[in-house]
Amino acid sequence: MAPADGAAWALREGACPSQSWRRGRCSLGSAGGSLPLTIMAPTDGAAWALRSGACPSQSWRRRAARRGLCGRATAPHNHGGRGRAGPGRELRTGGPRRRGHVTGKMAVFPWHSRHRNYKAEFASCRLEAVPLEFGDYHPLKPITVTESKTKKVSRKGSTSSTSSSSSSSVVDPLSSVLDGTDPLSMFAATADPAATAAATDSSRKKREREDNSIIGSDFEPWASKRGEILARYTTTEKLSINLFMGSEKGKAGTATSAMSEKVRTRLEELDDFEEGSQKELLNLTQQDYVNRIEELNQSLKDAWASDQKVKALKIVIQCSKLLSDTSVIQFYPSKFVLITDILDTFGKLVYERIFSMCVDNRSVLPDHFSPENVNDTAKETCLNWFFKIASIRELIPRFYVEASILKCNKFLSKTGISECLPRLTCMIRGIGDPLVSVYARAYLCRVGMEVAPHLKESLNKNFFDFLLTFKQIHGDTVQNQLVVQGVELPSYLPLYSPAMDWIFQCISYHAPETLLTEMMERCKKLGNNALLLNSVMSAFRAEFIATRSMDFIGMIKECDESGFPKHLLFRSLGLNLALADPPESDRLQILNEAWKVITKLKNPQDYVNCAEVWVEYTCKHFTKREVSTVLADVIKHMTPDRAFEDSYPQLQSIIKKVIAHFHDFSVLFSVEKFLPFLDMFQKESVRVEVCKCIMEVFIKHQQEPTKDPVILNALLHVCKTMHDSVNALTLEDEKRMLAYLINGFIKMVSFGRDFEQQLSFYVEARSMFCNLEPVLVQLIHSVNRLAMETRKVMKGNHSRKTAAFVRACVAYCFITIPSLVGIFARLNLYLHSGQVALANQCLSQADAFFKAAISLIPEVPKMINIDGKMRPSESFLLEFLCNFFSTLLIVPDHPEHGVLSLVRELLGVIQDYTWEDNSDDKVRIYTCVLHLLSAMSQETYLYHVDKVDSNDSLYGGDSKFLAENNKLCETVMAQILEHLKTLAKDEALKRQSSLGLSFFNSILAHGDLRNNRLNQLSVNLWHLAQRHGCADTRTMVKTLEYIKKRSRQPDMGHLTELALRLPLQTRT
Amino acid sequence: MGTSLDIKIKRANKVYHAGPIQIINSTIEMVKPGKFPPGKTEIPFEFPLHVKGNKVLYETYHGVFVNIQYTLRCDMKRSLLAKDLTKTCEFIVHSAPQKGKLTPSPVDFTITPETLQNVKERALLPKFLIRGHLNSTNCVITQPLTGELVVESSEAAIRSIELQLVRVETCGCAEGYARDATEIQNIQIADGDVCRSLSVPIYMVFPRLFTCPTLETTNFKVEFEVNIVVLLHADHLITENFPLKLCRV
């Protein structure tokens, strides 16, 4: 359906309300599709005459209704325009014929509504207002707290603390219980200031001491590094795991003459963990490798759990041996991560086991225990572990395994760890391969920081030892190895970074500035220090780096081209500058110097990795001009050969950084190169991701509604991109998310008083987002809101122009709703929009909505899908209908369709609907209809819509109208009774009883019991409810009590007599 | 159901110290004849180790030629109808610490192609210079062997440097001496081509089961040596030997 049609139609509305009314109806009919095109021609001549007249719709309507009523009395006409089935027709075809049929053998009961005086009832329900004297008790009265002013014997120098809050009116009600003095101020008053001071002093000292030995949250833990390393150091080459689990006889070529074969085997048994099995797993992919290592980790845990401690140790030894293997060197950092995980597991298991041995029946070892508290068995076990590990033949496993249980030294002696750390540090000097050795150092620093962070000396020693061996990287052994593996130096050197960064980070943690300066100086002295420089920048405090940015740029420039890649250095510097600000005066120069180098990078990958980081710095300190320049440079670099295709993550990250800094979207979109930058995201999934990011930021930061055409254009485009990505395969969650984002945008668009512009925006939005149901729903709500806003502005009195506009809004909703899929969404929106139309005096349009809703009801399926689960729909339908009835009360009758045509039509639909076999919902609905009809027969209705005359004023309590109304009631009652009769079977007796009682209550509430037959019916129902002993006696007693109470009210005397006729069943 | 007999030594993983007392092979009666209640019965026992005649109670030692072993045997004599039960169990004897203080005996060493013996063609050897020292060759058995080693220069890449602990047993018999050297521990202290001029620590813990204080009796000797083994690429093997004297202090 073309959305423009509806709007155009509405705007076309003519000058004559009645004429346009008719035309409107016809258009609506055709637009709605489901409405009958022709409405039954009334037989009434008077109505004919009136139809051609040109008079204000309201008065026209009223007269027409009255006349229609007269007409109906003489010549009732058939409304069954759509030819419904038999029973449905019964309700609509009036006259005596019907009566006999419906009630069958049952006596016919007439309906007489009780007269209600709503005003008086409301007044009588209200609580009486009693003025409250000052000083009287009242739970909600503000309480004032009287401050306790204990005079302190103030010591010299102590300040008197009688700081008291003045008794304010907003006070915690809890304090009222406390007799005016709250316990905290009492405590403060009695506390000895000197003692408190001493206490805080000692606790501060203690804290300081602990500061030294406990790592704070500002120390980035290893756990956060591991993922990054695993993701960055990958390989496509085949890997192998070689676990020498068999005996190494004849394999170890060390011609040790003096060794007897027997002893040798015995020693080597320590090295195997499954006798005679030697596993060499070749040709593993990286993922296989990771899985194998994980299996080993698991088998370590299993072995430990099944008390095979020696096997566990063997597994750990074999795993650490893998760290001496540097084939496929690019993978080494990741291998280190995987294997040290196993070592960590082992270290923890051993520590926990020994710790648990210290626990005897009496006491548990405290966390900070001393070796004296450890019993001999635990010590002996611990010592055994160390002896076993000390006899591991190979250096690397011996180092790693001992380091992994470093913490266990605590069981043996106080100085154990402080003696062990330097020894292990020295031991690493024996590792010839510089890469293997630097990772060993990193592991030792890691364990050291965890177990004894105060032992900084060893950390420093590791750093200085590393500097001593730094020259090895350029030695023959390493170079030969690189040639063999075909690895270039610029990709080899970054392999050191994770380990070095970690060591540097450990050292620089809470380190004095002087140490950092010294470290930097020592790095400077070494040739080709780019690697060191990079780690300094990665690990040192960002502030330290940022303040020396210019120095660093100088140093980077001096670095040797052939070694460590320069773009990584600039990247590291950029990362620091994103965290800490350089001196104000240097900022522009830093950017210029850095970008001069970055822009020269030839490889797009290197370039974008660098640029990604520096965008943050640019956004932080510069204006949109500089940002635009930077974005332009990125576009220039990434466009040739479609290089952007390989760098979506980085480009996405650039966008995220830019939008994170420009919360003002009018500024953002005025960044010249922002939109061209977006054009680089040509892969749809990425494009949609970027759009989502933009919209999320918009929704989060846009405070005020906007009509800025730049924002609107850009964001409409962004939203359209998101919307257009929806296809048949899109997941529900994704759709929900997209709809949420688009709705967030729609809600933020406002043209202020320019309502027409607003509506045309909604028209445009509808054409753009037609595939997302929640967006359409939002649009309908928005348009309804717009109509109500208009009404508010006009204070309810529409001008010709606003009336036309409001009708345009209504038309918008009317033609949009049918395109929704959700049946209840449609029903509720029809109802809601109908209410809005009614409120805006668009009566015929309101009728159309309600008719549409009525004609939709037969389509409600038995089961509907709610959050992916199929549920019965009846309860939802019941809820909707009750809501609908409440609205129908105030909808004025259509002049041409006879009395209560909507209600009749709705009843017909309810009648025809296929209800669940064993449900009483239909009768519940009929009961509600009875309530509605009772309310309709009142002289003045309970509520009204401003400027709309409901049936009460239209008919003015005309007796014929009441008679029609009562006839309908009779029919409905007959239906209820019929249903009650069908329940007279064993299995349904309980239902019969409760329905009977509920009907009884309805009659009691709404019926006039002075009428004898109604009175008789209620007595019958009372008996029915109790007949089979299904009734709840307490409810019956309460009901009876209520009747008696009501009978004492004025004009209710007849209930006294009724009460006498209602016996309570005695249980036998 | 069968009856079983078991000996449990308190602190099973603990080494036992015993003074040089004389006599071995002593028997004590643990319980007088009678009847055990059903279930598990534990009987504590304790007795001094007395050495026979003028013999010496040596430390427990498991070697190739020489074995010094101590066992406990428990016999349960039972009535005619039931078999007697027997159980044996080894226990370990450590001699009491020797009196007096150990005098440290540091050794410096330098290894070059020139210092080597048993070289066929000295000219074919790559040039190298390895210096180092052992802090003492008189060692306390419970303390590690320590020292330092520096590869000052080496033409060939180094593959590995190891410490080899060797035990030498000598037995006297009618035909003369029988001498057997056994590697009892091998500890790698350097792996790969280590950095030149950077000292690598020498550190070795003596294994508890295979070492004992150096022993010299009329019938046999148990002695220890350490070899520093340097493996170069191209399969050159350089060994430097240092005799050790172990004692318990």
Automatic annotation (TrEMBL), chain A:
Please identify the protein, giving its name as recorded.
VPS35 endosomal protein-sorting factor-like
Q: What is its main location?
A: other
The signal peptide, as residue positions, is none
Any idea which UniProt keywords this protein has? Endosome, Protein transport, Transport
The beginning of the lineage is: Eukaryota, Metazoa, Chordata, Craniata, Vertebrata
> What compartments host this protein?
Endosome
**CC annotations in GO:** endosome
| UniProt-annotated stretches for the region Disordered | 71-102, 147-174, 192-212
One biological process term from GO is:
protein transport
The record's similarity note reads:
Belongs to the VPS35L family.
Q: Where is the composition biased (Low complexity)?
A: 156-174, 192-201
Q: Which organism is it from?
A: Equus asinus
Automatic annotation (TrEMBL), chain B:
Transmembrane segment boundaries:
none
| Domain of life from the UniProt record | Eukaryota
Biological process GO annotation list? intracellular protein transport
Q: Which family does it belong to?
A: Belongs to the VPS26 family.
Matching PANTHER family, A to Z? VACUOLAR PROTEIN SORTING 26 RELATED
Q: By what name is this protein known?
A: VPS26 endosomal protein sorting factor C
- Originating organism: Equus asinus
